[in-house]
């Protein structure tokens, strides 16, 4: 996997993936940012959320669950001192569907966390990552 990050002036940077997709990142206004994009650490959390959500939806569909929507709400805490690494990440899934099995949803989240989601498994080596979920009947 290859990625290019190009300075866009100030504290803004444009990331371009090998598949040709772009993401703008920008620093906080207090450091010269202009709010042109996500902060890099926000983008890191977005990657974790996307990775685990992909797994959960895919596992549920393969388990013949009638999934209509899946939302991952991520709350993170960072260290007070530099480097301000993540210390805790909590992912709350809101899974909507018809007649979803609580056991199957729980298992899908567990499989993502322990076997499939490269991003959360990698971060989990140094960050406390927790999960919970709610099922919304659709």
Protein model, in words:
The chain has three helices and six strands, in the order E-E-E-H-E-E-H-H-E. The protein has a three-stranded antiparallel beta sheet with strand order 1-2-3, with no helix packed on it. A three-stranded mixed beta sheet has the order 4-5-6, with helices on one face. Helix 1 packs across helix 2. It is 32% helix and 38% strand. The protein is elongated and about 50 Å long. It folds into two domains: 1-38, Single Sheet (N-terminal domain of TfIIb); 40-137, GMP Synthetase, Chain A, domain 3 (2-Layer Sandwich), CATH 3.30.300. The chain is of the alpha+beta class and 138 residues long. A hairpin with a 4-residue loop joins strand 1 and strand 2. It has helices spanning 40-62, 102-116, 118-123, and strands at 3-7, 12-17, 22-26, 66-78, 86-98, 128-137. The mean pLDDT is 97.
Topology:
Blueprint: E1 3-7, E2 12-17, E3 22-26, H1 40-62, E4 66-78, E5 86-98, H2 102-116, H3 118-123, E6 128-137
Parallel strand pairs: 5-6
Antiparallel strand pairs: 1-2, 2-3, 4-5
Helix pairs in contact: 1-2
Summarize this entry quickly.
The protein has 138 residues and is α+β, with helices and mostly antiparallel strands. The protein has three helices and six strands.
